[in-house]
Specification:
Length: 189
């Protein structure tokens, strides 16, 4: 039961500090998963996140699909902990406690998310977000030289891309003149 709770609390917002045994388990888990396993892991993460009330209405995962995703996820977790990384699992739990499982699966989940985010279709979707970001306002925040934002609305409220504001060049400022001042002559003795 404690192992199941540790697995189901995997991917916390902040992972506990891991010891060497947990690091070894994390390495073993990442090394042991195939590309197909990563897909199972991504599906499980997505399915689990889709239960959150803030996003549940965006997902149409059927109860049957959720059962199948959980079945595959459970089989993957079981295989990883009891076949592929048995010694590392035992040592990590003995040395670092049940949090070792959560920490190790957090690392594994991170690699699955990296794979998810690297997909070309996901990259296109990430790029689509740029249509809704006021680039001139960002440039002003980051201090891009010779650029300041034109007056723009504070936020996009109708879900449409913000109009592309015009870039207004900042007036050129000439550097102040500099004069060389010689050091006073050393006082004679």
């Amino acid at each position: 039961m404690a192992v199941a709770l540790a697995l189901f609390s995997a991917f916390p917002a902040s992972a506990a500090l891991a010891g060497p045994a947990t690091d070894a388990l994390s390495t073993c888990l990442v090394r042991a998963v195939s590309d197909e396993d990563r897909v199972v892991l991504m599906q499980w993460i997505f399915s689990t996140m889709a239960r959150h009330p803030g996003v549940a209405q965006l997902s149409n995962i059927s109860p049957e699909q959720r059962i199948e995703i959980n079945r595959k996820g459970g089989a993957l977790f079981t295989r990883l902990l009891t076949a592929d990384c048995t010694l590392e699992t035992r040592k990590a739990v003995l040395d670092d406690g049940q949090t070792a499982l959560s920490s190790a699966f957090n690392v594994l989940g991170g690699t699955a998310m990296d794979g998810l985010m690297a997909d070309p279709a996901v990259q296109v979707s990430l790029g689509d977000l740029a249509d809704y970001i006021d680039q001139n306002r960002l440039k002003a925040v980051f201090g891009v030289p010779n650029q300041k934002p034109a007056a723009t609305p504070a936020a996009v409220s109708d879900g449409k891309p913000a109009e592309k504001p015009k870039t207004v060049p900042v007036a050129e400022v000439k550097p102040a003149e500099t004069r060389t001042v010689s050091a006073p002559a050393a006082a004679s003795k």
